[in-house]
Design a protein that fits this description.
There is one protein chain. By secondary structure, the chain is of the alpha+beta class. The chain has one domain. 32% of the residues lie in helices and 25% in strands. The strands form 5 sheets. A 3-stranded antiparallel beta sheet has the order 1-9-8, with helices on one face. Strands 3-5-4 form a 3-stranded antiparallel beta sheet. The two termini are 39 Å apart.
Length: 240
């Protein structure tokens, strides 16, 4: 992996193929996601939470078997929304030194030059002929900005959900057929009963911060497990 800070002088003619695929890390049964994505995510994916050493994190369920993404069809996503951690492709944010010793470091866009999508002749340009950002790079910039901001903001949001008692540990059991059952241990989901029981000061505290809205979105998203099952059943039928 060779991340390089890009600019319109050294990389003015560079093209990148905006494609997905197992070779690029998209064949995963869970995707790390962030609160700013919940509204889009809950339309297609089930949102769950897990406790990690670094704290609580949210994930979108993409598949049931290890290395399985039921929303990946060849080199593209078969979903209306793609989690931002996968939208970014070979791009990342790195901190570049300020213009002088007193200036703070600044987040800048980096590109993995070793990624096979970089430099592809059938790729799309990053910059316009006269130096401005091309539409593709503008979109990537928005995705990276979301990720950068959410990595800072998400821990406090998840802690608020946890402190309000709105997350409960469960073992998710997913029955695809009478013979095939999947178990997802050590998962946390929004406790709908606790959410509905919030009143008075407790309700005011979480409502004013927008936590209630996020909790409702995450709770509603669990209905998408049925869509995940349907996708898995289609895959099994095709396999014969």
């Amino acid at each position: 992996m060779t991340p390089v800070q890009i600019n319109n002088i050294d990389h003015g003619d560079l093209r990148v193929r905006p494609t997905a695929g197992a070779a690029f890390g998209d064949a995963a049964n869970q995707a790390l996601v962030f609160p700013a994505e919940f509204e889009e995510l809950q339309r297609e994916f089930a949102i769950i939470f897990r406790r990690r050493e670094t704290g609580l994190q949210a994930y979108a369920l993409l598949g049931l078997d290890c290395g399985e993404n039921l929303f990946l069809s060849g080199d593209r996503w078969a979903s209306r929304y793609v989690p931002a951690t996968h939208q970014r492709g070979p791009f990342s944010i790195g901190m570049a030194r300020g213009r002088d010793a007193t200036a703070p470091d600044e987040p800048m866009i980096y590109l993995d030059m070793d990624d096979p999508r970089v430099g592809a002749s059938d790729g799309v340009p990053l910059f316009l002929p006269h130096g401005g950002n091309a539409p593709y790079l503008n979109r990537i910039s928005e995705v990276l900005r979301l990720l950068f901001q959410e990595m800072e903001n998400a821990p406090a949001v998840y802690a608020a959900l946890d402190n309000a008692g709105l997350l409960t540990p469960v073992t998710l059991t997913v029955d695809v057929s009478e013979e095939r059952r999947y178990t997802l241990p050590e998962v946390l989901v929004v406790d709908v009963e606790r959410l509905a029981a919030l009143t008075g000061e407790a309700l005011e505290q979480v409502y004013g911060t927008g936590i209630v809205r996020l909790a409702i979105l995450a709770a509603a998203s669990l209905g998408n497990i049925q869509h995940l099952i349907a996708r898995k059943q289609v895959l099994l039928d095709q396999a014969g």
